[in-house]
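Side project, low priority. Logging it here so it doesn't get lost.
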Amino acid sequence: MLTNIVDGFLLNPRIRYLPYRAAPMQLGQMEALRRAHNYRDQIFVHPPDGLQNPVPAYGQYNRQFRTTPNSYLWALSFWEFETIEREGIGLVIGPGVAPTDFSLQITDEASGSEIASEFISSTLFWPGADGFMPQVLLTQPRLFPTHGLVSVRIANKDSAAHYCQLLLYFLEPCELRLEGDQCA
């Protein structure tokens, strides 16, 4: 008999597990990965200094990073942050707002495959103001085999610089310890 898994999805009491809705079907696609004992969570944040340095007007943030080969990308979150001018303090980073000024492209450099065939709107990966779920689930987890080299491009389409952050949620394989089913 399979035991229940207590994880971030089950701890959110606002999720309604109604049949044929997006969230339960997407979680069903990940059931084997959620139950696997040889995978661990890994979250990558880009730009890592996104709250100190904005993406310039009509500019682009380009980075490559390595994840463990055979990792799965299962969710994304994208946040644009409001800037507020305070007297005596200067520019202050405010709350997260719906991203309207950015486009994203995420590529597996080993195979050349992309999440989408071209830049896609960042609004697709904004979890929303109500915080229903902290991330936006992909319809099916994406495997990054062999090299685990991931390329991220964030394009600012506005005439002003904006602060933003992209969170990529991965499950990466790890070695199991002999004394238990936990990752080393």
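Brief comment: The first strand starts at residue 39 and ends at 46.
Revisit when time allows.
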